Amino acid sequence: MKWFNFKQRRKRVLLAGTAGIILLLCAYQLTADNQPPLTAAELQLVGQWSAEPGVPTRIFKPDRKFTTSTGQFAGHWRIDEGELIVTVWQPYEFPRSLSVASLSLSLDSIQRSRIQETYQFKIEFSDSGQQHIVNHPVDKAHPDGKWLWTRKTE
Length: 154
Hints:
By secondary structure, the protein is of the alpha+beta class. 32% of the residues lie in helices and 29% in strands. The radius of gyration is 25 Å and the shape is flat. β1 and β2 form a beta hairpin. 6% of the residues are buried.
């Protein structure tokens, strides 16, 4: 009788262990970053870009994350059929002090960090890969509707 009881316990332990391993594998698969490799155009975009001196730069990271040099925006990016697609939001700001104004600004940043905006630009790279042009609505600064960005090198 005891031998039979031992076999049942062993089966239960094996079943529970197998179920646990399957659950862990499923959780890993769902939370892992399974991005496809960067395309040739995306590899060209990785780096820090500036439209003109003194203007905050845009930083395109190899894991397809996006940020600005001032930290004002964060997000993610991709290039699909010659179009740069950038989704951005304003990151959460921790309070800098315990003052009412600082706490209020921090609470406001929670609201702003939930608002995402997506921008699409047609993108063209120069032959050297050190510049790219994105389409932009026509205005005084961009009368031809093109915005020239240059790779920032340290």
